[in-house]
Amino acid sequence: MKKVICALMAAIISTGCMGGLTKVNGVDTLSYDKSAEQIAAYAKRAGYRDMFEDVPDTSSDYSSPTLTSLPDISTVPVAVQGSGQINITVLTATERATPPENASQSKDDWINLVGERFNREQYKINGKTVSVTIYACASGLAMDLIAAGRASDGFTPVGYNPSTMLWIDMLKAKGIEIEVIAEATAGNTVGIVMHPEEASRFKTQYGDVTIKNVITAVTAGDLQLSMTDPFRSSTGITALQEIMYQINPADPFGDGAVAELERFLSYVPPVAVTTGQLRNILNLGVINAAFMEYQSFAQSPQLSQWEFYPFSRHDGPMAVLGSATEEERQALEFYTEYLKGSEAQKEASARYFNALNDFEGNPARMNGEQLMLAQATWKRKKDALVPTVFFFVFDTSGSMRDTIEGRSKLSVLVDAVLNNLNYINENNYIGMISYSDGVYLNLPIVQATPRNKAVMAYAVRNLEADGGTATHDAVFVACDQILKFQQTASSTKPVVLLLSDGEQNQGVSLEDTLPSIYGIGIPIQAIGYHIEEGGKVKLQKLVGIYGDGFEGMGSYTSASEYELDMKLRDLFNSQG
User: More exposed terminus of the chain, fewer Cβ within 10 Å: N or C?
Assistant: First the structure.
């Protein structure tokens, strides 16, 4: 197990934990052992002040962080804007609709194209013009927003167009009044994608590529498989449902079945929140199988030689919310029929929908209540055997005092972390440093118990901004803390979470940093909050996103306040 996890973490530069000299993006990386050596040396040179000794030791001084409230639906990216006298708002899955600035980068713009044309036609109902406003929103997030009633006046959704019926079933289980008006708007399937060489070997050893046989291979340590977050991703929840059913069709939530699920999940690497992240991970060459929708698979050139084995359907049902007026319902029905028309379907097919419409797929395995229980079970068990170490690195340089809409950057970062800290499971670990001119240890790596989260919350609340920006020194100290912790701990999945607003201007240079940071393979998840382009480019290179768009096991996000909250929630929920 430890060998498997280490290989995955070192995937950027090596196929194992002891890889030799490798050139990545023009950088001569170091072997794992040499990287660890150099990280320790740089961390010692940087030094750090232990601030943990200043934290009060009475539990009465701590207050636990609370779960954040969800944002308003109006903050979700708009793919199509309507302006008719009857303007209906529809939340649509992101493989069907995408923010206009992203439309040219993928084939996920079907609804953009069809919705804009629908609005131009200016159809009428009762003498009033009809239009649609489309929000591009991950199906799971859209479900949460609808269930929480997170919509202000003028933004109340009329329609919900997720990838799969499973989300609608969960909304019904939550007591939301919702009715399906079309079971399909464009055909799609979800399946297992596998490298052809791996598929050939797999079939020889295990037989057909089925969920049941994949479970057997993964738990034997014989297949490296990745999946997406079942709280956000339709592919993730569909795969989870099928995995649990195949483990024990008669009692998928029984003790024995849950223990088998836990063992399976211990072999699955850190979850990719989105399909885009999943595609990048597959491109590394270490993961050789994944769950993915056909429409996304077919438009990925890097997967052109891979094989696809479908097991379920994702046909994009359309549902109307109970709060819709009669005119709004009529408008949504009219729009839905427009989507199902021959011209719209031709455009859907050009975007890789409808390709496998003869495939029937497996029937629904669980009702809405069971699906929510499956999510909760996954959250509880996904890292029970191989916990995650979240090591937070806070930029507290002088620029973090700058204000955005009346609030300092640091206060926004602090609130986002505190709002979402309780999404990290108690069996995982947390640690924290902050940095400006120097590096400060605010919390050594400890188990994420409620009390330790409260200790971290105390430290986070007391951060102050001043001085320069020694980002790379801080990253070296963070990696050194993780490596020392791993010497005494069993297998863990480490993540460095770097929160910064600017470009490094003190300490070790980027050129001197990359050989060992790439070599050690610890994923760095960097969030740039209101960051300038120069700092963004350097953070991207630090985490392993290179000039040609290739992404390593880390990630980078330029975040607004809304995106910051959502990014942290998704990261903690999926990997914590």
Answer: N
Question: Residue 283 burial by CB count (10 A; 0-12/13-18/19+): exposed, middle or buried?
Answer: middle
The DSSP 8-state label assigned to residue 53 in this structure reads G
Cα separation, 310 vs 313, whole angstroms: 8
Q: Are 287 and 302 in contact (CB under 8 A)?
A: no
d(CA 274, CA 296): 11
- CB contact at 8 A, 223 and 289: yes
Distance separating alpha carbons of residues 195 and 314, to the nearest angstrom: 23
User: What pLDDT, in 10s, does the model give residues 173-222?
Assistant: 999 999 999 999 999 999 999 999 999 999 999 999 999 999 999 999 99
pLDDT at 69 (0 to 100):
55
Contact 193, 306 (CB under 8 A): yes
Which amino acid type is present at position 178? I
**β-sheet bridge partners, residue 473:** none
Q: Taking all residues of the chain, what is their mean pLDDT, rounded to a whole number?
A: 85
Determine the distance from the C-alpha atom of residue 184 to the mean position of all C-alpha atoms in its chain, rounded to a whole number: 26
Task: With beta carbons less than 8 A apart as the criterion, state whether 294 and 356 touch.
Answer: yes
Residue 258 C-alpha from the chain's centroid = 24
Check residues 147 and 349 and name the one with the higher pLDDT. 349
The candidate with the shortest Cα–Cα distance to 370, out of 240, 274, 268, 262, is 240
Read off the pLDDT of residues 81-130 as tens digits, 9 standing for 90 and up: 999 999 999 999 999 998 876 666 677 899 999 999 999 999 999 999 99
The rounded distance, in Å, linking the Cα atoms of 176 and 174 is 6
Count of residues making up the chain = 576
Closest CA to 567 of 523, 538, 526: 526
pTM over 0.90: no
- DSSP notation for 395-462: E-SGGGG-EETTEEHHHHHHHHHHHHGGGS-TTSEEEEEEESSSEEEEEEEEE--HHHHHHHHHHHHT
Q: CA-CA distances (angstroms) from residue 276 to 95, 293, 570, 576?
A: 10, 12, 14, 20
Structure tokens at 551: 């992404």
Question: What are 500's two structure tokens?
Answer: 């910064």
Higher-confidence residue of 359 and 420: namely 359
Rounded to a whole number of angstroms, the distance between the first and last alpha carbons of the chain is: 19
- With CA atoms as reference, report the closest residue to 303 among 321, 319, 288: 288
* pLDDT above 80 for 272: no
CA distance 319 to 168: 8
128-136 and 86-92: which strand pairing? parallel
Rounded Cα distance, 413 and 197, in Å: 45
Measuring CA to CA, how many Å separate 299 from each of 59, 135, 296? 54, 22, 6
